[in-house]
Amino acid sequence: INKRNADGMVILTPLLNSTSSSTSNFDRFTWQQTEKALLHHTINGCIYFVPAHDDVLQLYEELEKELTSNVASSFLTVDSYRLEVLSGEGIPIPEIKVNNIQGWLAGAGKKISNDNLPTIAIVASYDSFGIAPALANGVDSNGSGVVALLELARLFSRLYRTPKTHGDFNILFLLTGAGRMNYVDTSVWLEKADSRLLESIEFALCLDTIGTGEGIKLHVSRTEKDPKAKQLYDVFTSTASQMSIPFEIVHKKINISSSEVPWQHEQFSRKYILGGTFSNLEKAIPPMTRTDIFDSSLDLNILIRNIKFIAEGLATYIYDLNRPNVSVFADDLSLSTDFIESWVNTISRYPRMMPYLSHPINYHPHYQPHHTTNTKGSSKENVFINGLEKELSKYLTEVTKKTSVLTKQESQDYVFYDKTIATLSAFRGKPVSFDIILSLFVIVYISLLYTFLKGPRNTWMQLIQIFASTSKKTKRTVKQ
User: For residue 109, what are the contacts with CB-CB under 8 A and spacing of at least 6?
Assistant: First the structure.
């Protein structure tokens, strides 16, 4: 754009949720690297991402034909095109609102009073990020973490419903936003939480990108020298061994002086709470470089396996199960494939980039969520966020949604604009040769009509008079 001084650039994105040929040749890594490169360059123009539908591909082929054809042939045969976008100028969004949703499974309190029961926190961030907000679905990152949290809430609610399997731990389920902004909403939640609650948290397990990969990793900050940490790590190491799952514990020290928070559990660690993040990622990726517009799918079998692994590990810890090869979540307590698949499909239809989850958006028909009837003039928060709250209310108690407004410092001084979707129109025009030939045809037609009406002799004499008068005017101009 900068070199050619163009007004904008159109990028055709593959149809990742279809069986078209563009999907079969899809190179996810190359596309993700392209997106990251665009994010880190200053571009003097607009960039439009257009899904490569058949009609769009046809237009692209015709444009390519126009560019590659020689001058003579294009002059005679090739139509010209003009692309136009009528969306108006974007307006900065004045404030960024973030919602967190939490719910509880209260422990049985067989040994100690409920007020003093230890708490296990299961946490996931639901937002996504991408250079094109309307395409940032983030199915694996971090849609998989959200789906896993919902299934864990469903599973343990069934265990806690029965007196015999009612555990002695409170379980807190927490969904947070602004994960790509250094998990600032997690930090806000920790600042506002009751000190007694924070003191009761035995550990916090964060779920992030667990829907792909051969194995799973637990990223932690505390070493095995801490007895509680060693107990937790040993439980999941043993569970992974029994389930034959490649498992690794990755230690990373927290740089308190750095403002960057690459893992969600580090916000808990800064409050001296034991925490860890389950993920298939080898290492942390800087928050604002984790892009999601090409993250449109996951491996359902891998996700189910990882959810079962986490659930079995938690059950082993909660119920202090020392017997090997004991599966808690089997038979009637098995994971629900239909439930998990349904929520994966739902999340794949919702871009969840901040601050657009709480900002009113008029959907373009192409991006209209399939299961909504009227979202014009309303925000996606009314559908997606409220949907999460409603789902958790089926299994948990005291489910609440709290909204906070980020300060400029918390939002890292990023400015977001309200225009995320526009209509790109292509206008076809005839080649120059068409106008020339049409003009010649009109001249010849008028000449023949005049000759027919006046006769050939009168027409000829009229032409002589015209040229003669023109010649006289020229001579007078030269003498002067």
Answer: 117, 168
Helix spans in 40-182 (H): 54-68, 71-76, 144-161
- Cβ–Cβ < 8 Å for 141, 208: yes
Q: What angle do CA 251, 256, 261 make, to 5 degrees?
A: 70
Q: Mark residue 455 as left, alpha or beta (left: phi above 0; alpha: psi -120 to 50; beta: remaining).
A: left
Q: What is the pLDDT of residues 216-239, one digit of tens each?
A: 999 999 999 999 999 999 999 999
Residue 431 is predicted with a pLDDT of: 64
Name the burial class of residue 41, with classes exposed (0-12), middle (13-18) and buried (19+) by CB atoms within 10 angstroms of its CB. Answer: exposed
Say how far residue 185 (Cα) sits from the centre of its chain.
18
- Is pLDDT of 376 > 80? no
Q: What is the spatial distance between Cα 368 and Cα 361, in angstroms, rounded to a whole number? A: 11
Q: What is the pLDDT of residue 201?
A: 96
The secondary structure of 169-206, three-state, reads CEEEEEEECCCCCCCHHHHHHHHHCCHHHHHHEEEEEE
Q: Which of 122, 97, 239 is nearest to 178 (CA)?
A: 97
Instruction: Work out the average pLDDT over 2-19.
Output: 71
Interatomic CA distance for residues 262 and 280, integer angstroms: 14
Q: pLDDT tens-digit profile of 444-453? A: 888 888 787 8
d(CA 384, CA 367): 14
Dihedral pair phi/psi, residue 94, rounded to 5°: -65, -35
Q: Which two tokens stand for residue 52?
A: 């490569």
Triad 393, 380, 297: Cα angle to 5°:
85
* CB-count burial class (<10 Å; 0-12, 13-18, 19+) for 401: middle
Average pLDDT over residues 340-355: 91
- Over residues 151-157, the mean pLDDT reads 97
Tokens of 97: 């609102």
**One-letter amino acid identity for 206?**
C
The sign one gets for the Cα dihedral 276, 281, 282, 285 is negative
Is the Cβ–Cβ distance between 96 and 355 less than 8 Å?
yes
